[in-house]
Amino acid sequence: MITVRRATEEDAERLLAWANDPVTRAAGFQPSPIDQRTHGLWLEERLASPTTRLFVGLDGDEPVGQVRLAADPDGRVEVGISVAPEARGRGIGRSLLDAGLAAGLADPDLHIEDFVARIRPDNAASLALFVGAGFRLAGTDEVGGFACLVYERAAG
Fold this sequence. Notes:
By secondary structure, the chain is an alpha+beta fold. It has a single domain, classed as Aminopeptidase (3-Layer(aba) Sandwich). The chain is 31% helix and 35% strand. The chain has five helices and seven strands. It has helices at residues 12-19, 22-27, 36-48, 93-105, 124-132, and strands at residues 2-6, 52-59, 62-71, 76-83, 114-119, 136-143, 146-154. It has a seven-stranded mixed β-sheet with strand order 1-2-3-4-5-7-6, sandwiched between helices. Strand 6 (136-143) and strand 7 (146-154) form a beta hairpin. It starts with a strand and ends with a strand. The model has no long low-confidence stretch (mean pLDDT 96).
């Protein structure tokens, strides 16, 4: 069973390694590797943000991925997820996503109305993951110069 806990500064090295994994970089909207200083500033901002939750997924005691939720004032929450390279192929993506969404819904400070995921059209794994979790195609967008598909799911 996959559970999640809030990320902390102690997770910085692990999160940076996961973020710089070539498969993760290729599926994202910023394909260049992230340097430690940039990542440290980003993590500090995310951890301090009252509208962002960054979770580390756990399979028992083993960290297996991360889920990021970023809420806007209207209750729309952007979802980002990545499975750790060493945990891929074990079928845990859906459990990780479900645990992250549940943790967000249980957080009264987020006031979630809808979840939103922006996914590159060539990211078959993420497309299958979010469709399987009940997200529906709502349109298209562009992030960082990359076309993306926008998927949405009501919180309820």
